[in-house]
């Protein structure tokens, strides 16, 4: 039986696994794209897809073949349903991480995370190292089953890093918003929230580490906290990102003409700096939902035009129309009162 030292779930191009194998470690990779349907069983399930029964069983069996206390797993869970830019579709939030379960994509993402949480718990119980990959702003961390795993797996270190792409300079580290270092207590007892299965040495070690963490704050954590970006900086970054996206929206697409926005969006964007700021705020208000953004902007544009019309209409006498509106009665109906409408 082969003992793995590395497993990469949702591997995609599996670059991490390739690097691990080049270092001489044994590694396995999983992704539903690797499955090739059998010609004699064309309707069989994809055993590389964790959302299928066969795929979930294979993921567990492979994890059980890892070297105890000497392996790592990497889970690059599909992030599209968890990102803030998808909230208009998934309807997820910190208060409702389940989202709109009436949509197939949301149900599939929930099932994927719940099964991945089982793999995380099993990996920690076997003494392995776990890496969960998600972009900044992901709502995955609020999902109950994932929080349940974190609550049980107390002996771990959680580090959040924030990276942004800056032009041609590549990735730049803006800061590490939050770092939590918890006591490192081995054994399966710590995983299941009980100390009954722990030895006396493990209990004493856990007590010493907890005491040290209270009396001697980690200098590295202090430095990371000092580099934490302020809330104002994050808001400005979101605002700039919104303006950049609207700028891309207004560009004419020659091949994907279905992505072109209505002309009033382009006209509004080109009307001035204040309009750009207002449009960026509007895009953030609708959680970066393009369709809602265009709909709301159209209402605003129509409301402004209606207001301009309203302030220039009213009842005028014949004398007022002649003096104020420079009206001529040639070819027009003349009565005691007529309605004059002046459009700018």
Describe, in plain words, how this protein is organized in 3D.
By secondary structure, the protein is an alpha/beta fold. The chain has 3 domains: 6-231, no CATH class; 249-305, no CATH class; 312-344, no CATH class. Helix content is 44%, strand content 13%. The protein has 13 helices and 8 strands. The strands form 3 sheets. Strands 2-1-3-4 form a 4-stranded parallel beta sheet, sandwiched between helices. Strands 5-6 form a two-stranded antiparallel ribbon. Helix 1 links the parallel strand 1 and strand 2. Helix 2 (53-64) packs parallel to helix 4 (104-125) and helix 9 crosses helix 11 (273-285). The model is unreliable at 162-198, 213-227, 305-312 and 333-344 (pLDDT under 50).
Percent in helix: 40-55%
Measured by DSSP, the beta-strand proportion falls in: 5-15%
In order across it, which strands form the biggest sheet? 2-1-3-4
- CA gyration radius, whole angstroms: 30 Å
Mean pLDDT: 73
Termini distance? 83 Å
* Helix and strand pattern: EHEHEHHEHEEHHHHHHHEHE
Question: How many separate structural domains?
Answer: 3
Overall shape: elongated
- The DSSP helix count reads 13
Oligomeric grouping of the chains: single chain
Q: List segments where confidence is low: pLDDT < 50 over at least 5 consecutive residues.
A: 162-198, 213-227, 305-312, 333-344
**What characterizes the major β-sheet?**
4 strands, parallel
What is the count of β-strands? 8
Structural class: alpha/beta
Quick take:
Residues 203-233 are annotated as: Disordered. It is built from 13 helices and eight strands.
């Amino acid at each position: 039986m082969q003992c793995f030292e590395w497993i990469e779930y949702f591997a995609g191009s599996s670059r991490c696994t390739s690097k691990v194998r080049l270092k001489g470690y044994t590694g396995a990779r999983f992704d539903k794209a690797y499955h090739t349907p059998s010609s004699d069983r064309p309707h069989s399930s994809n055993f590389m897809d964790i959302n299928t029964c066969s795929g979930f069983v294979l993921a567990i069996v492979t994890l059980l073949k890892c070297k105890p206390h000497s392996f790592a797993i990497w889970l690059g869970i599909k992030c599209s349903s968890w990102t803030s830019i998808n909230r208009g579709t998934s309807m997820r939030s910190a208060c409702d991480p389940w989202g709109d379960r009436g949509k197939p994509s949301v149900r599939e993402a929930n099932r994927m995370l719940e099964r991945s949480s089982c793999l995380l718990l099993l990996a920690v119980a076997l003494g392995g190292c776990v890496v969960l990959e998600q972009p900044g702003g992901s709502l995955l961390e609020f999902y109950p089953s994932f929080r349940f795993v974190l609550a049980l797996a107390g002996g771990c270190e959680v580090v959040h890093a924030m990276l942004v792409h800056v032009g041609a300079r590549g990735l730049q580290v803006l800061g590490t918003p939050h770092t939590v270092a918890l006591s490192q207590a081995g054994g399966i007892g710590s995983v299941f929230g009980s100390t009954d299965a722990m030895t006396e040495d493990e209990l004493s070690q856990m007590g010493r580490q907890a005491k040290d963490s209270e009396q001697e704050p980690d200098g590295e954590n202090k430095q990371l906290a000092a580099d934490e970006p302020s809330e104002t900086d994050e808001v400005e970054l979101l605002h700039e990102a919104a303006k950049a996206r609207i700028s891309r929206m207004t560009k004419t697409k020659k091949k994907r003409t279905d992505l072109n926005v209505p002309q009033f969006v382009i006209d509004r964007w080109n009307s001035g700096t204040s309009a750009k700021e207002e449009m960026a705020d509007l895009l953030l208000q609708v959680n970066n939902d393009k369709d809602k953004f265009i709909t709301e902007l159209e209402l605003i544009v129509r409301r402004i035009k209606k207001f301009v019309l309203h302030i220039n209409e009213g009842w005028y006498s014949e004398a007022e129309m002649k003096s104020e509106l420079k009206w001529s009665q040639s070819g027009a109906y003349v009565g005691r009162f007529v309605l004059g409408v002046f459009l700018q």
